[in-house]
Structures are given as structure tokens and as C-alpha cells.
Amino acid sequence: MGLDHILLERSDALSNTISKYQKGKYIMATPDALPLRAEVHFEPDTREQLLENWTNRVNELGVNVRYNCEVTGIEGEKGNFTIQTNGEEVQAETVVVAIGLQGNIRKMGVPGEDDGLVTYQLDDPKDYWDKDIVVVGAGDAAIENAVALAQNENRVTIVNRKRDFARVKAGNRSLIMTSIKDELLACAYNANPARVEKGAIVLDTPEGEQIVRADKVIVRIGAIAPRKFIETIGGVFDEGADFPRVTESYESDREGIYYVGALAGYPLIKHCINQGYEVVQTIAGQPVEGADIPMLQEKFGSFATGRPMQEVLEEVRSAVGLFNGLTVLQLREFLLEADVHTLSAGHQVIQKGDAGDSLFTIVRGDVDIAVTKDIRFKVPQSEFFGEMGLVMGRRRTADTFAGSGGCTVIEIPRNAALKLIASSAAARKTMNDTILLRKMQTFLSPDLSKEDLAEVMDTYENVRFHRGEALMEEGAEADAAYIIQSGSTAVLKDISGQDVVINYLPAGSLVGETALLNNAPRNATVRAAIGVEAIKINKAVFTQLLERNPKVQALVQKMAADRAAGAGARGTGTDRKTRIVDFLMQNGIGEATNAIAIDNKLCVRCDYCEKACAETHDGIPRMNRAAGPTYAPKGSSARIHIPISCRHCEHPHCMADCPPNALYRSPGGAVMVNDTCIGCGNCVRNCPYDAIHLSARPKKRGFLLTWLLFGFGDSPGQRKPAKKSKENKEMARKCDLCEDVRGGPACVRACPTGAIVRIGPEGLMQKIREAV
Amino acid sequence: MYVQTGFLESRFWFWAGILLSVAALAAFIFYDPPGGRDGSTIVGYGLGGLSALIVVYLAWLGVRKRRFSSSTGRRRNVVSAHVYLGLALLVTATLHTGFEFEWSVHTLGYVLLLIVVLSGIWGITVYSGLPEKMSRNLSDMIVEKKRFDMSELEQLEVDLEEVDGRLERILQFLPDDFRPAIRLSLDKTKIGGGLFSILSGSSKRCATAKAETQVRGLIDSGSYDEDVRKRLTDLVADLARKREVAACLRRDARYRAMLKIWLWFHVPLTAALVVTLIAHVTLVFFYW
Amino acid sequence: MKLLLVTLRKRAGSDDVSRRETILDGAEFKVGRAVSSEINLSDIDIDYHHATVRIDGGQVRMSAESEGGISAQSGRVNEANLSAGGSVAIGRYTFTAEPGRDGADAVMVLEEAPAAPVASGAKRKGKRDLEQVLPSRRLLGWVFSLAVIGIFVVWPMTDVLQRPGMPGGPAVNTSEIKLVDGMARKDLPKPSPMEIAWSSGPLSDVHKLIENDCAACHVSPFEMTADNACLSCHANTQNHADVQTHPAVSLDNTRCGSCHKEHNGGASPVETAITECTNCHQDIKTVSAKSELENITSFETQHPIFQLAVITGVEQDESGEPMASVSRTRFNPDQPPVEKSGLKFPHSKHLVEGGMKSPNGRVQLQCASCHQLEAGGALMRPIDMERDCGGCHRMEFDAAGLKRPLPHAEEDEIARVIETYFLAAAMEGGVTSAAAPPAVKRKRKKRITLEELEQQQQQTQQAVAQLSDSDRGLTIEWARKETLVQMDALFGVRLCGTCHEAQKFPDEKGEERWKVLPAVLQRHWMPKARFDHTPHLSMDCTGCHNAPESAKSEDVLMPAMDVCRDCHVDAQQTAGADCVSCHEYHVPGREPMSPAHAELYQARADARQRAPKTVAQK
């Protein structure tokens, strides 16, 4: 376009964020749907390839770049800016800030740091062998580096200034913990670097100074966010916001200065590039609408026909409670991933029992939720539904139909919705309120209104519990009730001096509710079987509510009476059985929706389950019979084994961090991987149950009969693992519940003795209760 | 306590088997042709044909149970059928012979069938008894399962590796007289080996056991300073642990073998039986 | 003293080498496995304190502390002085001395070769799975299966095929042998155990004698025995009924074998199951509309009443042989059938208690005194007068105290004997009776005794001839008269008359002559059935044949069906009531089973004539 421009780059090369990535890292171009509109070419590729392309392209275009030029401040106003740098000043009419959030790498700031022993990134762990290496930091990067180095026969010490690795991904946590336990590497807890000496680093530890021999010190302690700098140049951060405020054309509060990319809240590369383009267009006086607008237009279909998108978006934002807190830009981003359904009256929106995990919000009209035949309540416009599936990872609990007069709903997929809740406090609040309300409605009576519960609404707290932490102790005074939002809990009772699990309450249940009904002390202990998020309803508040609200009081008394009548109805099972439940809980069955259990008293170790699994899945077994925990205490006649295989968790850990979003939950409830998997191995690391593995697809040789008769070919279910290649990529392989196979899971069908079962936790408990 | 229902608990096939046997017996008793009860009477043919069909069906299990991709029914039920029809076979086939045995391919067939079924019964007994023993054997030996993705067996292997590692390391603190014992344990501790040692699963001649006694002997005889003494107690503990684990692994190998060995009779002889049956039928029907 | 120790470690599977330098300070430095030693060689095979290193004059001296020693170029040594460049080794560690630097009195480079890769675990890995120590089940399966085929199919087959008469063996002219020496080929080798291995059971007794001759029945391998094989012995097997009128019984394309199943042991391969018969006979009409037979379900329940072959009269054919006219009459106890056998025989008289008088005093007769089984054993032998009756009923003519034997059933001879007697008496003379002519009364000088005369007829004739014409005439006349008188007595009353009817007939000369009317005894009362006395011998004859009660010879002494049924019922533990125990399937007197039979029967017949000739010619 021939605009007069200059590109100021702090370091000595462009795009150094990407150049800091792990060597050979494969970089995705998400969101796929979004069209790229820029001069530089960008497609999924390896770090090296990408960098090369870009540098070439930039040179082609003859971009005017000044390297090693760090901006310190900006003077003047639109049309006449003066940019101070560590070099000479630069004059400009408008400034586009695209510094991202990485900011400056954080240093230790200790003497001797710059004597060459210290580095701030690790390109290839293979570069070091049989060296003494100290890794400073306790983040994901630090852990990944440390372990990689240790596995390469280096003597590694990881320096953690805390007493645990709390902040990191679950996968990395288990990785580092096992490494430390196996003495693969050493860890200095509560340690801070004091100074760097020749061939060693001195640490401040509770036990005093400690000298650690080091051929290399690798520091991975993150970066300083550029907030300060932004504020100096007139950026404004809203209350609680992580990003400076920008207009829809990405212009900051200080006219003439634009923010794009991560800085504007768009970490995705494609976004950055597009925004850059749009901003430049705006500056050039020929503004273009966002690349996503046409797509949104299409999404809204009839809802938006004949109206400018602007208007539609505004309507949506104001209409939907969850969206109120969002900027139009953020809204656009969400909607891009969402689907819009405009449905005629009575049309079914959600099928009860489906394993959907998306969130629905109502833009127009309303819907009917049929909890049971008689309990049916309306969800009015602006509210949302389907949160059970999203937040609690439960199957759809009720059929839902478009209300009279039809409705327009927006379906937000799991990840987007989670992001929404995370990013907007307002959204989070709305979500909790609704969950609370609905829970109370189903618990007490559907005719409870928001108003009835006003106080409770204002006073409940969100609480988190770690695995094993107690929500309430048996015998303690009952001070509150909890709604389990995610995770699951085990109900324990003190039987002959030791706690045994008598029940298991999945996400979505209301625990300690008796507290709301009467003043009896806790009749059981409730522990988090896994990490639990819960809404805490304070009893004091509730009792006040009762006093003021006879309607609710009546309901509560009725309920209390009913409870008293059916007291102790809940089957507790015998001591030995509860021990089994206990074991299952400790092994995370609590968060499973469908897991394998093997009765070791029947299992003859033929491994047919595994072979069958392999045979029905391209010769790659998705389970490991022998591995996994076994319940076989001395003196107990029960022998239960939980082999390694996917448990299709309520909140799949594997989904947490999947670049191409290849992991999804099928309507049948199975967590599946689709072909877009790039084999990055994140899910493998994140799965706490080792249920996912990477492998290429092996070839099958021969047939069953040829093998059976002449031993030619692979024995069924046992193929030679394949070498990965360009056309046969390694992909994440995991259990898919054999959903596409008639007759259910092959492992179960193949068991000659009937030792194995694939079942949900409730079902398993049932079996155990019934077992003789 | 069984959480699952095993292959022996199929009511349907149990009664099917009983019914079959009783029916066969009744037919045999109440039908007394002048020629005497044998394979060449109407009932005789009936029993023979039936038995032959059953044999073929049962033999087909070998293929069927490996047809993993086929989604027909649960193998457990097929196995139940296999078991109870197999037992009924004992009756039908025996009656088919009419108790006329002589040196002939026909009697051979019956003898083979007998061995096959008996080995099958053996199989049933081990299947219903050993799994628990096996599980107990390993589980009781596990001290701590370090890694989730390891089987108990692998865990114990790792334990042994670790003990060996410690044995080598600990020697750096011990005088040379302990070396032979440790060497013995390191090099000569064998698990499994030939068919016999697998099946016996005995740990009588376990090298580590010897090593342990030697070490104990040395300890009693010599006098050592405090540090060495501490390490020696560790050493003894390690050797003891290794001895136990090794014994456990031997037992495991033995159980594993016992679970399978009957198949070495059951399967090949079934093949022979089928061939013999073909000969038997051919001869009987084409040779009159 | 300062020693700079340079440790070099080689990276396995690559040529990276890591180098670390440590300064050791002291008078002497221990080398060994012990962690306490300054130079620690962590290898189990190196001694706790293996060697000691000292430095004097920039020279490194290493002296061994264990018999393990140090290996230098020269071999194992106990002491080594290392000047710069010199090197020794302990186990996988090599020490090389270098001139001192950086303030160190000496420098020693310690190179550690990577440990032998063998993991201690590897030593422990014995074979632990049966798959590793046993041949695969697949292999065994093949071996066993092939063994069965080899031993129990191929081997027997080769033997069988090489037997005489089999495709692979020497030819045997079956039809010949079977005829000449009544079937069995004694000279055939006994079948080997392997051939027996195919047999589905022992042969039936009746076929025992051809058990060595497999080819006799199994003409060609893997074919059911063809009928011809059976026919070669059982050629003259008749059909069951008239095929023309009852085509059903022709049993086209049904093998002998389909009814007669061999290799089941037992007496004979005859199918005895009642159903085989009743299948057709319980409703015979459906099988053949023409049949006049009654339906039979079983002997016990539904079986036609016995139809006896009763003699209703006896005639004489032109040849003079007696010819009985027989009628089959259903046995009906109320009006018992009447037999006209031409004989007079009251069983009651003969079997009377206390016996009856006989020439040699009183004798108590039994059934068996007259009725004996015939050779075959099935039926009673025919009654023979001389043998069975003659004991008492002596055939003799006694006059003047002389007993003269008379032949049975020869009227004319009897007449001749008597006449001769009277002529002789005349010639002897001295007859006293009044009617006698003088020539007879007269006493002769030259006396010839009666005996002599009777013995030599001519003499009598001569004597008669020598008489004067008148005397001769009178004498002969007298003798004839006397003879007639005697004959009347013998035939009419005394001798023949006791059992037979006799009449006088005029002969060609017009002279009256006695004749005994023909008589026949029924031998086979139930021609359609086959009754065998032998198995019944244990019983009392009178149990079935009520002879003691029977005073008339017209009585038919056959038992009623119920008598048989007392024992013969379908139920177990009885004599049984198979059809074939009385009736044969192949009815004697019918045409041959099949054309094949006919031909063979003919061929057999011819051969039977030829056989002796051929023998003679040799």
C-alpha cells in the first residue's frame, strides 16, 4: 500500500516469541474457520519452517525493520508522535503496538548471572549430556526442560522457590513428582538463587546456603507483563481486566495508538495477523469489517437477515445475561466458535441422557425443561441452560424443548464456554446463581423464584477442595450445605474406628442439605474424591430466609418430614464392601463416567480383552490389562483390578490442552480423538490415568485362519508396532467405548470368563453392593 | 466375593447340559433293540451324530473366541456352552460306544475324546481356583506400587532391579568378604528356566537364599564398626526381600503355567480327535 | 601432594566424552571400590581397597593392595611407576599419567570404559512361559492329526489294499473257492492289527469262517459291500413274496447290507426287529392291495390264528403211492379239525398209565418211545412201522406154534408165505383136519420136515408135482382155502387190521385179494412257519400236544396259539416273539431275490456238475 512505516524490534530477529518455542514444535493456525487476510502466508507448520517463510516474505515485501530497538516511551498525540527508544527517536502519525504479553524475560537478578553460565531457554535437551545442570523455576517450561535433560543422562537439579509444584498442569506435576521420586533428578524446595559462581550456583535454602555444581544454569521463571509500559503510554485497564481497553477498531484510549494481538486479548496468531491488517486499513482510511463478520452473518442466518451485524451483536450482548460483561470484540470471538439455532415451538433442543457438554443461551423466546414428567420449568429469554453438562460433566439431565413461539438459542461449545466463564467475572456469577437456583428448585420446589432466594443468592461462596480434603466432618456442627459443581465426593462414616466410604456423590449433587432442614450435627464425613468446586450455602443465611419466607419454610418442613420418614434408606453395604468403594474412590473412579473393572478372581490373564481391543482398533490396544491399581488387601476375598483404560472422565483432563481440539465427547458419552490430532502428546501427559498413548497405525499381516492353522500372520490383536512416517503419523490412541461396534465394548465381549465389565461408577457401586 | 458372574454360572447352559445327558441316558436305557445297545442302532446313530455335532461346535470355539471383530454375543456365554456341552458330551459319546471297545480307530476316537474332555475339566478347575491365588500371590508381595502404568508383576521386577542396584552400591561400603555372596545373588538368582522349574516353581535352590545365609554367617562371625553394621542390616533386609520377591515371581510363573498347561493336551488332541472322527464316520458309513 | 584427577567418561553409543577435573590433596590416595577411597571406582569387581597411588618426584606410583593387581603393558604387576604418558589399568578403568600442571604435582587421566551392557536383570531372565519351553500347540496339533491319519488311515489302507482279492493284492477267484471248499479260505493270512483297526466290530458267528478274507465282502475299498459279494455265497436266496403281485417286496436298489448289518458280533447278521416286518404287515393292504394276508402288529397282540395243514383223506395215485389231500384250516378248539390219515391210532391207549402189554411183558410207553427228533433237529422224524411200532406189533404168522415173520405193507408176499406154509404142511402129510383131502391126511414114508420144505420151495413144488394128478389138485385146492381163511383173519382183524383199514379186491383172475388202504402222517403242520423242537425239548411234550387225552386218531394234537403265547410275548425275559423266530423273510419256494440271484444260482448249479469231473481229470 506504500504507506511510510517503520517496524521497531527489540531483539535481533523478528517473531522471537515463536523462535522461543521448543525446537520442532508444530504450530497450529486456529481458528481454522477464520480466513487469513494478510500479505504474509500462514499455515500450520513446524516452528522452523514458519520462521523461514515469514523472514523470506518480510524481505520480499521490503518491510522497513529496525532491530535491537527497545521502545521506552511515546510522546505527542495523534498525527505527531515521538517514540523514544534506546536508540534515536522516531516520528510517527500513528502507532500500532503489537508487543504481545510475553513482555521481557524475567531474570534472577543475582550476581554472576551474566557470566555466561546462565541461559533463559533450552533449544534441544540433546545438546547436553553427563553435565551438572540447574534448572531454576517451577513452571511447566521449567519442568519440561528439567525432565528432558535428566532423561538425557544429565545430573539435573530443579530449583523451586515454593514447597510444591502447584501452579503447573496436572500432567507435568505427575511427571516431575515421579521423576523426583525415581531420583531421576534432584529438587531444591523453598530455595532461591543467591549468586552464580564459576561452575556452580549458590542457593538460599531453609537449611542455609547450598552450593550446587553446575555446568549450565537454565532459568525459566516467566516474563514481566508489559502492563506498566502500556500504562505509561496511556493504555487503560478496566477493573479486573487483563487487557487494556480498545475500541472496536482496536484503537486505545489514546487516539492514534492501536493495540493488536495478545495485547488486545487475542493470543491466536491468526487473529494478530488479521487485526494488524484491519488496523492498517483503518489508518489508511479504508476501514474493513472484521474477517469474522460474514461468518457470523451466516451463523445467525434468519435471525440476522437484513440487519447490520453491529445491531445483531448489540442485541445479543444485551439480551444474554452471560454476555453482558463482554466487549463486542470478545463476543465476536465467542460467537465465532458458537452455533446459533432458531427453532420453532416444541422443537427439541436437548435429548435427555446425551453426553453433550455445550452451553445454551437464549437470545429470543424461551424453552421448557422437563426435569421429570411433573417438574417442568421455563427458562426465560436471556438465561442459559445445559450448564449441568458443561460444568459438572454429567449427561443431559432433562429433555428441553423450544417454548411456545419458538426461540433462538446460541450453543457455545465446551472450551469456548469455559473460556467465557474464566474470562468474565460477571458470567461466572450469573452461572453460579442459576445453578444454585435450579438446584434449590429441584431440591425444594420448582415454584421457588429468584426473589425467594435473594439472600442466599447474595451470600453463597464458591469454594474449592483438593482431593481428599473434607467438605464436612462427621459429628461436626452443620453450618452449610454444598452444591458440587465439578468433581465428586465420597461420603464416609466412622465404622469401628476407621473411615469407610458409604456413598459416592457425583457432581450436581446437593450435600449436607440436612443442615438446611434441621439442627442435627453432620451424620457423615464428606471428602473430595478428586478436586472439587462447590457452591457453599451458608446455613445462618438460609435460616433467616426461612423465617422471612413462610412459603419456603413450609416446603423445608415438608421435606424434613419426608427425610425423617425415609431415613437410613440409603444402602450402606458391609464394611468390607465399603472398603472397596473407598479404594475405587482413591483411584479416581469418582470422576469417571465409564471405566473398566476386572474381577481378578475370574480373570485368567489371557489378555483377550486387550487383544480384542487392539483387533477392533487398527491393532493398537487402548487398554493395559495388567497395569493399574488392584484391590487385594490381605484377609479380603475381593479381588478387583482397574486396568489402565480411559475412564471418560466427567471433566476429561486430556481435553484441557489440545491444540487442534481433536478431543471431543461423543453423544454416546465417549471421549474421542478425531483425525485432526497432530500427535503433540499433550493429552498423553495430561491424562492422570495413562489411558492415552501415541502410536502409528500398524499393518495387519495374514488372516485369523492362516495364523490359527499355519502360524502365518499376526496372532489376533498382536501386531508389530509400526514406525511413524509422513503418511502414517503418530496419533493419540484411546478408548472410544467401541461406540461404532455393535454389541458394545470388545474387551467385555471377548472375556472368556466374564471377569471384566465396563461400567459407570454408580453401576459399579451397585454391582459391589449386590456382590456376594 | 465375586463382583462378576463367571462362565460357570450360566443357568441356561447348565440345564441344557443336564437335559442333554438325561435325555441321552433315557433313550439309551429305554431303547433296547434285539441287536443290543450299540452305535449302530437308531439311538446309537442319534447319540453319535449329536456327539459329532457337539465336538465340531466346541472345536469351533478356538476360532470363534478369536474373532474379536465379530460382534456376536459375549465369549463368556460361548464358554459356558463349551463347558456344559463338553461335559454332556462325556455322556452322549460314552453311550454311543455302547461300551464296545476294541483295538480300532473308532475306539481311538473315543479315547481321544475322553482325554480332551478330562483335560477340559482340569482346565475348569484351574480356571476357577488359580486366578485368586495368583492375584493374592502378587498383591501380597507388593510394598508400594510406584507407577500407575505398571503391572504388579512389572513392579516386582523393578523392585528386584532396585535391590540389585542397591546390592552393587552397598558393596562400595563393605569389605571384600561380602562380594562372593552378593555376586552369587546378582548372577545366579534365576527365575523360571526349563519346563520343570517353571511347573515346580520351587525356590529351594535359590541363589539369593544361599547368599543371605552366607551373609548372615559372615555377620555373626566377624565384628564390624557401627557404619558397616548399619549397612549390613540393610544388606540382609535387601537379600531377604529379594529372596521373597524371587520366590513370589517363581510362584507366579508356576500359576501362569498351570493356568495354561492343560491346553497343551486339550487343543492338539482336539485337532487329532476331529481328524479321527472324520475317519470314523467315513469308515462306518462307506465301509459296509 | 596435589594430584589432578581428570575423569573421562565415554557416552554409550556416541563419541561424546565428558571431562571433569578434580584436585586431590594428600600423601597417598586410595584406589578402590570403597566410597571412602579418594579415587573411587564404582565397580563391584574392583576390590574395596584395590590400590594406592603415591607421588614422588612428579612420578606417579601405583601399588596394588589386592591380589587382583594392576594390569600394565607388561602384564599383571603389583607396583607400577607411571612417568608422563605411561598407563595402567584396573578393570575397565585406565590410568594415564601426565606431567603436572595448574599447581598439581601430577596429573592422572582416569578413563572409564562404559560398563558391559548386561543388566543384572538379564541374568535373572529364565524362560517363564510355557510358550518358550514347549512346542507350539499348533505344531502338536498337526503332529497328532497327521499321526492319526498315518497310523490309522494310510497304514491300514496300504495293508488292506494288498490283501488277496483287493485291488493291490493277488487275485482270488472268489466264486470258485466259495463253492469247492464251502467258503472259507483257510490259507489267507490273518488280518494285521492295523487292518483290524478299521473294523467297526467283530463278525457274527455265521461269518466267522471268512473273517480272514476281507476281500470276500469288501470287494473294492471305500464302497459299501455290494450285493454280489453276498450272493457269491447266498445265491439261492428267495424272495419274500411274489414280486409280480407284490412289487413292494422286490426292494429294488436296496442292498443286502441295509438289512443285514455285519461287524456287530452276535449269532448272525439277521435283522430281528419286529418292526422290520410289521412296517408292512400291520397294514398289509396299503403295501399290496392284492394280498389276502391278515394284518399283524405282533405275535402277542395281533396275529392270525394258526392255519394247520390237516389231512382230509388219502388216495392212491396210479403209481400206487399214497397221496394225501390237505386243507389249511384255522385252529378252533370248539370244533377241532378232524384228520383222515387212514390210520387207527389211539394215543390214549398207548400212553395209558401202568403201561400196556407187549410181547415182552407190560411196557410204559413215552412220547419219545415212538417220536424222536430228526437229524436236523427241527422236526420229529417220520414214524417208521417196523422201528417205532414193530416192537409190540410183531409182523408174524404163527401156526402150529411156529412164528413166521411177515413183511410190512406187502400184501401179496404175505399171501405167498402163508400159502407156501400150507403146501408144505400137505407134503409132510398127517394133517388131521376133517376138510383135508386123503392125500393130505396120508402119512408119508420118506418124511421131509415142514421146515425143510418151506426152506426149499422147489422141493415142495417137486413134491407137489410128484403127486398123482387127483391128489395134486385136491392138495393145492386145500392149501388155497386154508390160506384164504388165514388172510381174512390177519387183514380183517388181527394183524394189519389193528392199525389199518384193509379191503378185498378181485384181481384179474377174479380172485379176491386183501389190500390195505393208503395212510399218510402229517409231518409239517404249519408250512408257513418254521417250528424247531430243539429249544423246546426242556418242556413236557404233553404241555403242547395233549396226547394222553386223545382216544381217536382223528384228533389233531397241535397246540392252540395261547399255549405258545404263554412263553412267546414281546416283553423282555421271555422266549420273545420275533417274527423271524417262526417265519423266514426269504420264503422258501419263492423265486430268487433278484435276476442276479437267478443267474448265479444257475452258474452254481453248472459248476456243481463240473467240479467232480475236473477233479477226476487230474
Task: Provide the fold topology.
The complex is a heterotrimer of chains A (772), B (288) and C (618).
Chain A: E1 7-8, H1 16-19, E2 26-27, E3 45-46, H2 47-61, E4 65-66, E5 71-77, E6 80-85, E7 90-92, E8 95-97, E9 104-105, E10 118-119, E11 132-136, H3 140-151, E12 155-159, H4 170-181, E13 186-188, E14 192-197, E15 200-205, E16 208-213, E17 216-219, E18 223-224, H5 227-232, E19 257-259, H6 269-283, H7 293-300, H8 309-319, H9 328-337, E20 339-343, E21 348-350, E22 359-370, E23 376-379, E24 384-385, H10 387-392, E25 399-412, H11 414-423, H12 425-443, H13 454-459, E26 461-465, E27 470-472, E28 480-486, E29 489-495, E30 498-505, E31 510-511, H14 514-517, E32 525-528, E33 532-538, H15 539-548, H16 550-565, H17 575-586, E34 595-599, H18 608-616, E35 623-624, E36 630-631, E37 640-641, E38 644-645, E39 663-665, E40 671-673, H19 682-686, E41 693-695, H20 704-710, E42 731-733, H21 746-750, E43 756-759, H22 761-770
Parallel strand pairs in A: 1-4, 8-19, 10-17, 11-12, 11-17, 12-13
Antiparallel strand pairs in A: 2-3, 5-6, 6-7, 9-18, 14-15, 15-16, 20-25, 21-25, 22-23, 22-24, 22-25, 26-33, 27-32, 28-31, 28-33, 29-30, 29-32, 34-37, 34-43, 35-38, 36-37, 39-40, 41-42
Helix pairs in contact in A: 3-4, 11-12, 15-16
Chain B: H1 11-30, H2 42-64, H3 75-97, H4 105-141, H5 152-170, H6 179-188, H7 195-200, H8 207-221, H9 226-261, H10 263-286
Helix pairs in contact in B: 1-3, 2-3, 2-10, 3-4, 4-9, 4-10, 5-9, 6-8, 8-9
Chain C: E1 2-10, E2 17-25, E3 28-32, E4 39-40, E5 51-56, E6 59-64, E7 70-72, E8 75-77, E9 79-82, E10 87-90, E11 93-99, E12 106-112, H1 120-124, H2 130-133, H3 137-161, H4 174-180, H5 193-196, H6 214-217, H7 227-231, H8 256-259, H9 274-281, H10 284-287, E13 307-316, E14 322-330, H11 347-350, E15 356-358, E16 361-363, H12 367-370, H13 385-389, E17 396-399, E18 402-405, H14 411-428, H15 438-441, H16 450-455, H17 457-466, H18 469-494, E19 502-506, E20 512-516, H19 541-544, H20 561-567, H21 595-617
Parallel strand pairs in C: 1-12, 3-4
Antiparallel strand pairs in C: 1-2, 3-5, 5-6, 6-9, 7-8, 10-11, 11-12, 13-14, 15-16, 17-18, 19-20
Helix pairs in contact in C: 14-17, 14-18
